[in-house]
Amino acid sequence: MPIEVEMKFAVPNAGELLRRLSSLRPKADNSQIEIDIYYNHPSRDFSLTDEAFRIRRIGEENQITYKGPLLELQTKTREEFEAGLLPGELNFHVLSEILGRLGFIPVREVQKERVKYHFQWEERPFEMCLDNVAGLGQYVELETLVPDDSPSLQNLSRESLLRLAEWLGLSVSERRSYLRLLLEKQTLVSP
After folding, report:
1. pLDDT single digits (tens) 43-66
2. Fewer beta carbons within 10 angstroms: which end of the chain, N or C?
3. Which residues have CB under 8 Å from 183's CB, separation 6+?
4. What sign does the CA torsion over 135, 73, 107, 38 have?
5. What pLDDT is stored for residue 85 in this prediction?
6. CA 89, CA 35: separation in Å to the nearest integer?
7. Which helix (H) or strand (E) holds 8?
8. What is the DSSP string of 25-85?
9. Over the stretch 133-145, which tens digit does the pLDDT of each residue have?
């Protein structure tokens, strides 16, 4: 399965970021709303193992995703397994019910408006997601995929990603997931 090499950054000025990106002639997808429900495993705590398991709804499309533990400290490099599911809101709710009956514990919903940009950087395909996350604000994720678990390809991809982030003017990466950021914010606000 592919290895995802990713970095995330808070975005103080999306206009400046998009201006810099425009010279790479990205292809932009339409804006879409993504609704994710994250789950914890019945017998191990994903927050401790740094794994993620979710179902996602984008319009009528439904997906299920498992992300393995992070493989290194600088970026969010990890295995990612994703599969499409039967479409429609009813199927989304049925899957959620099945997961609950199997003992998976819903942790939190994360909703965002996302625009994806696809482009080439250093002869490698990249994707940039500009996200407006409900309750958090605006973030950008930069990602490339490595087709296998080759450490040398992962290192080359990571170095390319770091150069891209610097070129785009992004300097302070955020390693916590949107889920973790929302849970921490929720804890700070709770009485």
Report:
1. 999 999 999 999 999 999 999 999
2. C
3. 107, 108
4. positive
5. 95
6. 11
7. strand 3-10
8. -PEEPPPEEEEEEEEE-SSS-HHHHT-EEEEEEETTEEEEEEE-----SSS--EEEEEEEE
9. 999 999 999 999 9
